Every structure is written in C-alpha cells, then in structure tokens.
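USER:
Class, as today's exercise, take the chain set out below, and explain how the chain folds.
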Amino acid sequence: MDFALTQEEQMLKDMARNFAEKEIIPNRDEWNENRRFPIEIFQKMAKLGLMGLLIPEEYGGSEATTVGFAAALEEIARADQSVAAPLNAHLTIGSIPFLLYGTGEQKQKWLIPLAKGEKLGAFGLTEPNAGSDAAGVETRAESDGDEWVINGTKQFISNTGTDMSQGVVVLVVTGKTEDGKKRFSAIMVPKGTPGYTVGKRFKTIGWRGLDSREQIFQDCRVPKDNLIGEEGKGLRHFMETLDVGRISVAALGIGLAQACLEVSLEYAKTRVQFGRPICKFQAIQFKLADMATEIEMARLINFKAAWLRDHGNPYALEAAMAKMAASAVAMRAANEGLQIHGGYGFTEEYVISRFFQDAKILEIGEGTNEIQHIVIARLLGC
C-alpha cells in the first residue's frame, strides 16, 4: 500500500496551506466577530484554481483528484470553518449536479462561471419540515407551457445572499407517480428571478461567517430548460451528488480536529501548573494522544473513500463512514481541546472556543450522523 500523496496532490495541499496561513488565519477573528462573509478571499481562491477543484479543465476547473481535493480542503478547514464550509457547498452540491447531469448548454452557462470562481454555487434541499427526511420536500414546480412555476420555502441554504451568488438549484416536487409517490426534480433558479426572494440570514452559533439563508418562491417562473437532469429523478441525482459531499464534510471535520490538536498541544507546552508544563501530566498526554490517533484514523478512511472515487470504484459506504467518523472526531477534539485549555478555553480570547462552536454542525450537515448510521447499515446489506 502507498499512503503518499502524488506530487501534484502534495503541491495542491501545500498551496492551500500556504494560502490559508497567509490570507485566512490572520483575518479569521475579524470575520468571526463581525459575522462577515469574506468575499475577497473567495476571489483570491479563484485565482489559484481552488474554486473548481473537481471540475475538468474544459469547463474552467482544475481537474484535481478527489484525494487532492480532500487534502486541500483539510488545509482550508484547519484555518477557518467559515471559509471552508461555503467552499465545500460550492465545490460539491453547488457545482457537481451541473457536471453530472447538466446539458452542454447548462455547463457553458452555469458550470464554467462556478469552476472559474466568478460565481458561487448553492443547492436547496432543506425546508422547514424536510431535512433528514428528504422525501418530505413540499416545494412544488408546476408545468405551465414552456415554464416551471415554483412555490415553496427552503431553509438553511448556503451561498445565496452574496455578491458572488449565482442562484440556487432547488429540489422540488414536479408531480406524482402512478402509485401516488412524489416525483422530485432539480431546477436552477438564477439570482434575481422574479418571485425568488433570498430571505433573512441566520445567526448561527458556529460558522459565523457563513451566508446561510431562507429561500422563498412565490409563483417564481423559470424556463423548462432550467431542469437539471431528468424530470422525476432529482432526489436520486442529489443523493448521488451527496456521496462526494460527505468526503468534503469529512475533510472539514479532519481539518478542524487537526487545528484543535495543534492549538491544544501548544497551550499544553506553555501552561504551567504544579511547577511544570501540563503536557507533562499523563492525563493531558492521553487526551492529546487520543486526538492525534483518531484524527489519523479519520483521515485514512476519508482518503480511502476519495481514492475509490478516483479509481471509478463504489465509494458511498466509505464516504458515509468518513463523514460520520470525522465529524465525531472533530467534536471530541474540540471538547477535549477546550478541557485542556480549562477556564481560558471558555473565553472568546482563545480560538479553541470558536472551534468548539464550529464542530457541532459537522455532526448535522450533509446528513446527520444518525442518518449516516442508517446509510452504512443499508450499504452493508441490512
């Protein structure tokens, strides 16, 4: 077995790390404090090709391997989750549907601007009454001549309220099957379309710079040509896209856990109690050792999922495992890191407190960890 990154993958990882060290870490406190979406950072990432990592060069992307993509996203996540989270949404569910299911014209019109980083991508699944139960989606699109007429509300949708936002691909109900089940489809709604309102931005306890908003559709009309993929297969298409999304969320968790380990180790080396640094006490050493071990285990399963995808093999099982494991590791690392910092960790003066706030959503987004258990069990044949 060869666990080394290729030369190209290592270069991509190093570039992302250098960028994060110079452009993200020095500014993250200001973004977090002011809940600001740092659009200038995304414009800079576009120039480096980081906004189209999984997209072929013919569509303006960087055509990175999935392993390279995961390694690079880890580095951005290590620096700041409020940058990594919208980047994740853009790179996966915001862009991949166009690549996998879009027509040639749709790729030219919508995928290329996303891959070049001229626009920011978004996908709208979640609703007030539909989250883990994706089949509970109620937003509807009715056929009217050459148009779809959309009515409904989406909730917690990232990347739709910025100056870079392109619009949103929404999962909607477009009818029923012969046995009465809903038919789901994915439709692109460009920013500024009449009847489409980008609602309030949510004030979240973590990912404070993320632009997450309500989406309101009131007799919103778009051309029939805005249908992405086949009518009636939108939910299946989204679930297939979600597999690579789980690899990317796992990378977010691994990057956050790595950051927790690094700041906790540094603190433990400098914090003196009972006449010596606390890293000399076995209780602290065990915490750090467990954190390091669990991070490496999560990284390996995520790289395996990414490697399988790169080689054209089934990877849904490993992607679900990676997402579940990495998000849990991130939560434990943040919790133990804060414990190591003691009372100081409970103040906003130390970055571990923000890591703690950021960690929890990783166990919820892109399919809760409870749902991941179900997905894994089903893929095992249960």
Remarks:
- The domain at 123-231 is CATH 2.40.110.10 (Butyryl-CoA Dehydrogenase, subunit A; domain 2).
- The first strand starts at residue 123 and ends at 124.
